[in-house]
Amino acid sequence: MSGPAGFNQERKYSSFPGEIPPPTPDLAAHQDAGYKPLSILSILGCIVGGLFCVSMVAGFTAAFVFNTPWLMPPWILFWPGLAILLCAMGYQRARASENTLGGEKLAHWGMRLTGLFILCYLAHYSAIFFAVRSQADQFARQWMAILGKGELDKGFLLTIKPPRPPEDAQVRSTLEITYNAAMDPLSKGVYSGFKARELVRLMQLSGGKVQSLVLKSASAPAYEGGGYQVRLIYHIEGPDGSFEPSITVLGMESPTGAFKGRQWQVLLESTGMNQRLRPKDGTRRKLEHLVLAVDFAQKWTFAAAHKIWEIVIPGTLSGPEKALAEKGAVGFTLPPALTALGGGSTFAAETPERRAFLQQANAVFEGKLYKLAPDFWSDSKMKDSIMEDLRVSFRPTTNSIPAGPLLGPSEWIRIDPAVIPDYQQEGNKIRIGFDCLILLFPRYQIFATLYLEGEDLGENQKIDWRVAEISVTRGASMPGGGPGGRGGPR
Q: Is 174 exposed, middle or buried (0-12, 13-18, 19+ CB in 10 A)?
């Protein structure tokens, strides 16, 4: 309706029932131009996600600038995950507020940016995880193969932090001098201890004839100690049974260029057995042999340390010769001439039994049991003195009792039953080698292998063990003593 003076007048609607009121402006549509409070959840999500993104950028930048590997643990994804959750909740809260809350776009961009950095992190972590784990697995398998070949010097080198000593003709001397100093007479140095470790012995005795070697599990690479550290557990089926070693390796790069590329190292302090040897059903007889052999070797070395000759002398023989010497030892006392000379005197024997006993006693007293192992090592200046002290160590007049209080103070010769012995069998012939410690007080500490020999004649037949030889592998100054001491055993 139009009014006077050309003005249009709005039509007046009455409020009578049945009349439709005019449409009112949509107030919510005009509130965008005004202030709306932001969703707290959106703000918190963006703050947490932003901190994660900033830490990622800072970490990658530092790794690039300082040429240092950078790897955050997987649990760090909890924070960007929380950020996305908060942003999603804030986004839904703003959508459901009928346009009274803001923060939809903020939450949307927070989720996008955080998700992008999560993908970048996962790509970075996955590349490192699979590459490093593959390298660690390859190195650990190579190390076990080296042990299986019996190359223990090379195997020990791979446990040393790079740069390592060169693998040349002098490597044994380098390892002995640098890594094999014992703390006390009854202990082994690091190098000797390495050779006696259960895993090393099992791989060495397998002779490289491992039937199955499967990677059971691998830890996520962790950047510790200047490199990537990985713990690997293997399941190995060997000739005598199955076992599971746990091997921890460390791969590092030199920031100073001391060595090239990533070099790997076996961390001995973190390496051991996850599951010890589980013998096969067919090795029961072999285990019985070992139990009986340990008992015989311990009794023989105890008798040798206490100079009980009626056990020591026949214990180096077998068969009829052993029976003859045992009869000759009954009620026998070494004559003064034999004691003074330190050797045998066959003319003093009035019976064949006594003669057999004295003949073998002469060989033992003259040190005929000792043999130098092919890999024998000692300082060249003390080698002759060591061999002379060994040669007379079994003589009745030699005083081998240590001066200081030690575990088993009079046992100058002993085997280590805790170390896996060297077991060899060809047909019925059995040869077992035990780690043997010989203390020539006060001058020398000797490491050797005491070999027993016997013949398996059947299930119900007792093996007639004998001490075949004592193979000397290492001689060094007694910890706390030296070649200039009071003199060796005489």
A: middle
State both tokens at 175.
Answer: 């390892």
Residue 42's CB: how many other CB atoms inside 10 A? 29
Q: Is the dihedral of CA 48, 52, 53, 55 positive or negative?
A: positive
Grouping H, G, I as helix, E, B as strand and the rest as coil, residue 288 is helix
Reported pTM: 0.76
119-139 tens-digit pLDDT: 888 887 888 889 999 999 999
User: From CA 226, how far away is CA 224, in angstroms rounded?
Assistant: 6
pLDDT at residue 284, rounded to an integer: 82
> Does residue 414 contact residue 305 with C-beta atoms inside 8 Å?
yes
Helix (H, G, I), strand (E, B) or coil at 369: coil
Q: What is the β-pairing status of strands 272-279 and 263-266?
A: unpaired
CB 439 within 8 A of CB 412: yes
CB atoms < 10 A from the CB of 357, how many? 26
Name the residue type at position 422: D
**Backbone dihedral angles phi then psi of residue 8, each to the nearest 5 degrees:** -85, 130
**What type of residue sits at position 19?**
E
Q: For residue 341, what pLDDT band results from cuts at 50, 70 and 90? A: very low
> Helix crossing, 104-148 with 40-66: angle to 10°?
40
Burial class (CB in 10 A: 0-12, 13-18, 19+), 341: middle
Q: What is the largest CA-CA distance in the chain?
A: 164
**How far apart are alpha carbons 410 and 301 in whole angstroms?**
11
| CA torsion angle 114 119 121 123 (round to 10) | -170
**Rounded distance between C-alpha atoms, residue 388 and residue 365, angstroms:** 12
The domain ranges of the chain are 33-128, 157-278, 283-477
* Whole-number Å distance between alpha carbons of 127 and 134: 11
DSSP state of 225: T
Does 416 have pLDDT greater than 80?
yes
Structure tokens at 116: 């992008």
Residue 235, classified by CB atoms within 10 Å of its CB into exposed (0-12), middle (13-18) or buried (19+), is middle
Q: Which secondary structure element, helix H or strand E, spans residue 284, and what is its range? A: helix 284-305
Q: How far is 468 from 434, CA to CA, in rounded Å?
A: 12
Backbone dihedral angles phi then psi of residue 349, each to the nearest 5 degrees: -90, 125
- Model confidence band, residue 321 (pLDDT cutoffs 50, 70, 90): very high
SS3 (DSSP) at 484: coil
Q: pLDDT tens digits, residue range 133-168?
A: 999 999 999 999 999 999 999 999 999 999 999 888
Token match 């003093």: residue?
Answer: 348
Locate tokens 């060495």: which residue? 204
Contact 436, 415 (CB under 8 A): yes
Fill in the amino acid letter for 415.
Answer: I
